[in-house]
Amino acid sequence: TYAPKLILLDISDINCIQDVAKEILNCYGCVDILINNASMKVKGAVQSISLELDKKIMDANYFGPITLTKAILPNMISRRTGQIVLINSIQGKIGIPFRAAYAASKHAAVGFFDCLRAEMEEFDISVSTVNPTFICSYHRQSAPGNWEASIWK
Questions:
Q1: 102 belongs to the catalytic site
Q2: What InterPro entries does this protein's entry cite (predicted)?
Q3: Nearest Cα to 100, choosing from 31, 147, 145, 138?
Q4: Which candidate, 2, 14, 22, 15, places its Cα nearest to that of 38?
Q5: 16, 29, 111, 120: most buried by Cβ count inside 10 Å?
Q6: Does any domain span residue 138?
Q7: CA angle, 22 as apex, 20 and 23 as ends, to 5°?
Q8: For the whole model, what pTM was predicted?
Q9: Is residue 149 part of a domain?
Q10: Could you say which of 28, 62, 102, 138 is catalytic?
C-alpha cells in the first residue's frame, strides 16, 4: 500500500508534463490506471474567440492528455498491462454553436484515443473514452469582451 501523494499539474502546460510523469514513476514505479479528466472550455462565437485562446483550449483538452499518456505509456507497454481512460465530452461526437474550440479539441482527443485503443490491443492495455453529456462545472464570470476570462475549468 502506498501513501497518497498530491502532485499538482496544469494539464495545459505541456512543458511540465514529462517532469510530472517522471516524478510519478519514480515515486510508485508504475501507473496501473491513467484517468485523463481535465478540461477547459470557453463559450463564444468563432469570430470573437482569439486564436491564442483556441490554442490554449487545444493544449488543455488535446495535447495535455496525449502528452501525459505518451509519458506513461512506455512503462505500461514494458509491463504489458494497464488501463487508460479519457473522460471526454459528448461534444467530442457532435458540435454545438458557440463551442467550436472546445468541440474541436474533444473531437481530436476522441480520434487520438480511438487509434491508441487499436494500437495497444497487442500489449493488453485497455483504452476507453467516456463521453458524458453536459456537466455543470466551475465557471469564472468574464467582463464583457474579455473571452480569456470566460474559460470554464
A1: yes
A2: NAD(P)-bd_dom_sf, Sc_DH/Rdtase_CS, SDR_fam, SDR_family_member_7C
A3: 147
A4: 14
A5: 120
A6: no
A7: 65
A8: 0.83
A9: no
A10: 102
